Amino acid sequence: MLTFLTRRLLSAAGTVLLASVLVFASVQLLPGDVATQVLGQDATPEAVSALRDQLDLNRPAVLRFAEWLAGAVRGDFGTSLVSGEPVAGALWLHLRNTLLIAAATVAVAVTSSIVLGVVAGLYRDRWPDTLISSLTLAGMSVPEFVVATLLVMALSISVPVLPAVVLDGASAPVADLLPSVVLPTIALSVVMTAYIVRMTRTSVIDVMASEFVTTARLKGLGAWRVVVRHALPSALLPTLNVIAMNVAWLVGGVVVVENVFNYPGIGKLMLESVHSRDLPVLQAVAVVGAAVYVLCNLAADLAAMALNPRLRTGERSAR
Amino acid sequence: MSEPNPVDETAPESAQAAPAEGAAPAGMVRTTLRSLLRSGPATAGLVLVAVHVLVAVLAPLLTSYAPTANAPDSALLGPSAAHWAGTDALGRDVLARVLYGGRYALMVSFAATACAVALGTVVGCAAALKGGWLDDLVMRVLDAVLAIPPILALLVVVTVLGAGPAVIVLAVTVVYAPQVVRVVRAAAMGVAPLDYVTAARARGERTLSILVREVLPNIADVVSVEFAMRASWVVLLISSLSFLGFGANPPTPDWGLMIAENRTAMTVVPWASLAPIIALATLVLGLNLSADGLAKAWGVDRVKEAR
C-alpha cells in the first residue's frame, strides 16, 4: 500500500514536471525572440537587450529552466515583468480568491448532482428523470459565460440583489469578497452539475440492476437502506473520476467566469498576464493549474480505492 | 506460416470480420439513420444541426444587411420590422450578424474537430498497435499535456502565434487531440488482440496496412461518436475564446464576440445578447443530441468522458 502510494506520488510529480517543461518550452522557445515578443515589433534594440539581460535570455534554455525549476520548488516563481514584484505573492493571493469560488462550486455541484443523478436513476424514464435529463442537456449546451451573463441579467439587473461586477482588489479581505462569490459559484455549478448528473444517473441505473441490489431487496431491506448503504457506494465509483475531471475543468471555467464578474482570482491573473505578455506569471499559473489537475486525479484514485476494496488488491495492474 | 494455405484461409476471414462488427457500409448507414430517426431527441438534434448549416450557407439570401456595415444613426434599436432582432452599439443588424456568425462557428469548429480527431486517431491507433516504449512515451506526454488547463493552453498558443482562424484550429487540435488519443487508444486496444488482427500480423502485413484495413473499420463507430461529441465542446471552447477576446477579431460576426460586445448594453438592447446566445445554445444542443443518438444507435459508451 505504502509503496503504491509512493509510486503514485512520484508519477504525479513526474507529470507536473513534464507539464512545466512543456509550458516553459512553448512560452520561451517557440518562434522568435521572447524579448521582442514581449516588447512588440517596434521596440528599440536597447530596450530589447535590456530585457534580454533581465530575463537571462543569453544563457542556454536548459540552464534557465533548471534555475526556474529550482526556484519554483521553493515557491519562488521569479519576478513579474509588469509589476516588478515577486510572482509568488500575487499568485497565492489570487489563488486564495479562486479557491473560495472553487470550494463553493465543488460543494454545491457535487451535492446537487449526486442527489439529482440518484433521483433520475431511480425514476428512470418517468417524469422526474425526463425533467432532470432535459435540464442537464440544457446546462451542457450553454457555455459558462452565457450562464453568467443570464444570471447577471436576472439577479443584478432585473432584481438587483447581487453585485454584477467585483470592485475589490485581489488583497481584499475574504469577508468583503463573499457576496461576489455567489453568482460565479451558481454559474459554474450549473455547468458542472450538468456533466456529473449524467454519469451518476447511468451508474445508478447499472447498479440498481445488479444482483447484489436484488439480493438486498429480497432480504427485505427498506428502499432507503438499499439505495444508501448498498447501491450508492458502488454507484459513486465511476462518478468520482468524472468529478475529478470536472474539478480540473473548473480551473479553465473559472477563467471565463472571473472575466465576466471581474473577480480578482487566478483566471483574471492569467488573462492579464496573457494580455501584457507577463511570461513569469503565465508560467507560474500554468504549473499551478497542472498541479491542481494532477492532485485531483490522484485524490479521485485514492477515493476510489477507499470505496472499492477490489482496487486495493489489484495494485500492480492499476495505472 | 510458410505454406500458402493458412494465408488464403485467413484472408476471407478478416474480410468477413468487418461486416460482422459494423455491417456493410451501405446497410450500416441505412440502419443507423433508421435508428436515429426512430428516436425523437436524435431527430431533433439532426434537424437543429441541419438548420444551422442551411442558415449559414444561405445567410446572404436570408438578410439584406451586411454583418459588418456600421450605421451610427440606427444604433441600439429594439426589435422592429426593419431590424428583427434590433441593432447593436454600432448600428449593425443583430440578426444579420447572428446568421453570418454561424458560418464562422461552423467552419472553424468543423476544421478544428476534424484535425483533432484525425490526429488523435492516428496517434491512438499507432500507440495501441505498436505498444511497448512508443505507447509508454505517448501516454506519459499525454498525461502532461492533459494536465495543463485547456483554456490556458489555448491562450498560450494564441498569444505566441497571434489570433486568426488557422491558429485557432491549430490550438484546438493541440488541446483536444490528446483526449481523442486516449479514447481511440482504448478502443484500438480492444481490437488489437482479436484474431483477424493476429492473422493480418501473421500474414506479415505492415502496421500501416493493419491500421487502415483491420483496425480503423472496426473502431469507426467510436471515432464517429467521438467526432460528434467533440464538435459540441469545440464550439463551446471557440466561443469562450472569442468571448475572452482571443478568438475572432472584432469586426468578424462571431457569437462569442457578439455576446462580449453587447453584454454592456444588456439593459438597453437585451436581444443583441440573447440572439447570439440562442444561436449558440441551439447549435450545441443539436450536436449533443446527435452525438447521444449516434452513441445509442451504435451502442458506444460515451459516458466516460472528459472535456
SSE inventory with pairings:
The complex is a heterodimer of chains A (319) and B (307).
Chain A: H1 2-28, H2 34-39, H3 45-55, H4 61-73, H5 87-122, H6 127-141, H7 144-158, H8 174-208, H9 211-218, H10 223-261, H11 266-275, H12 279-307, H13 309-313
Chain B: H1 4-22, H2 25-38, H3 40-62, H4 94-130, H5 132-147, H6 150-161, H7 165-191, H8 195-202, H9 207-243, H10 255-262, H11 270-298
Helix pairs in contact in B: 1-8, 1-9, 3-4, 3-11, 4-5, 4-7, 4-9, 4-11, 5-7, 6-7, 7-9, 8-9, 9-10, 9-11, 10-11
Tag the structure with descriptive keywords:
heterodimer, A: 319 residues, mainly alpha, 13 helices, 78% helix, 0% strand, disordered C terminus, B: 307 residues, MetI-like fold, 11 helices, 75% helix, elongated, disordered N terminus, MetI-like (chain A), transmembrane (chain A), transport (chain A), membrane (chain A)
Notes on the protein architecture:
The complex is a heterodimer of chains A (319) and B (307). Chain A contains 13 helices and no strands. Chain A is an all-alpha fold. Chain A starts with a helix and ends in a 6-residue tail after the last helix. Chain B is an all-alpha fold and 307 residues long. The longest helix of chain B is centred in the middle third of the chain and has 37 residues. Chain B is elongated. At the A-B interface, helix 1, helix 6, helix 7, helix 8 and helix 10 of A face helix 5, helix 6, helix 9, helix 10 and helix 11 of B. Chain B: It is a multi-pass membrane protein. Chain B: This is ABC transporter permease.
